[in-house]
Design brief:
The chain has helices spanning 10-31, 37-51, 53-61, 66-73, 80-100, 105-124, 130-138; strands at residues 78-79, 127-128. It is an all-alpha fold and 139 residues long.
């Protein structure tokens, strides 16, 4: 981060607020399938890297959130368990929303299209196998 210039004043404050909001939404995204956790954490890391070295380091060092960013940045992607639970929960919530809340058929089709797009995106991400990574680290 030392090679970037930290903005001053309102731009720095805006980046800090955007980063903090992104972290909050990412935490919600862990529990709500329509909020994408990893992209929001990547956005937060980008904002913090340009506004606060301290916040950036704390985000990467966080034991729950840091691995999302590190795995993505290192090209490892998501774990099989995270992919399966994200896709499964996504479709359960979407189908419940379509069946209970959606008043017209075309809204349901839009939701199915969104869920399909998110599922394809998640399936195309590299799959990170924790047991393989642990074995390689022990060697």
């Amino acid at each position: 981060m030392s090679d970037t210039v930290t903005p001053k004043g309102p731009v720095r404050i805006l980046l800090l607020v955007a980063g903090t909001l992104s972290v909050a939404l990412a935490v919600l995204g862990i529990f709500l399938p329509l909020l994408p956790t990893t992209p929001l954490l990547l956005l937060a890391a980008w904002c913090y890297a340009r506004s606060s070295e301290r916040f950036y380091r704390r985000l990467l060092a966080n034991r729950w959130l840091g691995p999302y960013i590190r795995n993505y940045r290192e090209g490892r992607g998501m774990t099989e368990k995270a992919k399966a639970s994200s896709i499964g929960l996504l479709w359960v919530v979407m189908l419940m929303t379509i069946g209970i809340v959606t008043p017209v058929w075309w809204m349901g089709m839009i939701l199915i299209g969104i869920a399909t797009g998110i599922s394809i995106f998640l399936l195309r991400l590299p799959t990170y196998r924790e047991d393989v990574a642990d074995d390689q680290m022990e060697r």
